[in-house]
Amino acid sequence: MKKMTEKSLNEAFAGESMAHMKYTIFSEIAEKEGYPKIAKLFKAIAYAEYVHARNHARELGIVKDTVHNLQTGIEGETFEIEEMYPAYDAIAKLQQEKGAERSIHFAIEAEKIHAGLYKDAKEKAEKNADIDIENVYICPVCGYTTIDEVPEKCPVCGYPGEKFVKF
After folding, report:
1. pTM of the complete model
2. H or E element: which one contains 59?
3. Contacting residues for 56 by C-beta, under 8 A, at least 6 apart
4. Which one of 30, 59, 128, 143 is separated from 162 by 20 to 30 angstroms, measured CA to CA?
């Protein structure tokens, strides 16, 4: 792929990915505010943005087999843990942005777990085996992630475990 096209598709992928997330969040807000049909509209268009992002990702060669995708996940989570979030946290501290510090803390703690889960999954996938889990639970406040068992309260933010989202 020519460099200018690749750069354009990477920017389009980033933009479509961000639009997907924003519209998903907007859908949740509309639902909470009592606008179920507006929530549906946001959710549907968020899916369309996901489709666009997926198409761009395929053209860019981002999407591969599961073992490769897990390695990409490991590298992404490790970058966030070791480089991105520590730098962002330093800026938030310097500028005394407590909300940003909290948000970054929540993210980095979850990313550590995600990297480990991806590493374990990759080891299994390299042996042509699936992972042995029944459920994944996510704290809806901080993103803390746990497998098969829910804590009484989130160890990162203290949110009640019975309110975790089950996958």
Report:
1. 0.87
2. helix 36-60
3. 9, 10, 12, 13, 16
4. 30
pLDDT, tens digit, 9 for 90 and up, residues 34-87: 999 999 999 999 999 999 999 999 999 999 999 999 999 999 999 999 999 999
Give the HSE-up count for residue 153: Cα atoms under 13 Å, Cβ half-sphere: 5
Q: What are phi and psi of 155, to 5 degrees?
A: -70, -15
Q: Does domain 3-60 have CATH number 1.10.10.10?
A: no
Nearest Cα to Cα of residue 55 among 1, 13, 23? 13
Q: CA-CA distance, 40 to 23, in Å (whole number)? A: 10
What's the rounded Cα separation, in Å, for the pair 35 and 25?
A: 14
**Cα angle 121-123-127, degrees, rounded to a multiple of 5:** 110
Cα 99 versus chain centre, distance: 19
Domain limits of the chain? 3-60, 65-130, 133-167
Q: CATH second-level architecture of 133-167?
A: Single Sheet (2.20)
Span 145-167, average pLDDT: 97
Pair 164, 137: CB distance under 8 Å: yes
